[in-house]
Amino acid sequence: MELLKILRIILKKITMDLHSKEIEVIKMLRKAELQGAQKERAKWESRLSEATPEPESTNEWVTTKEAMKIVKRTSYNTLMKWVELGFINPPKKIGRPLYWEKANLLKMSPNGK
Questions:
Q1: Of 4, 38, 83, 91, which sits 20 to 30 A from 48 (CA to CA)?
Q2: Does residue 32 lie in a domain region?
């Protein structure tokens, strides 16, 4: 009986040690994951800040969604077709989104506004 109690105590101690080590490993993995994400974010933020188009004197850059509102169209393909035909300048891709020259789009909008 005594031996059984001792074995249970030892088994409980071993499982507690394993559990605490598992928690430590999980915490270390999570910390490494967060640090990696922070490094990746910093890298992309620096790339974006370097690559962000500098607005010329009166020229602004707008996203594709804003560009479609300016020219009063609902299709991205229309903008790309205009680029192929040479009506407007091609957009600049910075990171994931495309940026269009607002002044160039205003020439194609119905009101010019």
A1: 83
A2: yes
Residue 79 lies in a domain: yes
Residue 113 within any structural domain of the chain? no
User: What values do phi and psi take at 101, rounded to 5?
Assistant: -75, 120
> Sign of torsion, CA 27 30 32 35?
negative
Strand pairing partners for 61? 101
In a shared domain, residues 37 and 6? yes
Rounded (5°) CA angle 86-91-97: 150
| Domain count along the chain | 2
pLDDT at 16 over 80: no
Domain span at 71? 61-108
Q: How far apart are CA 59 and CA 102, in angstroms?
A: 6
The string of pLDDT tens digits covering residues 51-74 is 666 555 557 889 999 999 988 888
CB 96 within 8 A of CB 65: no
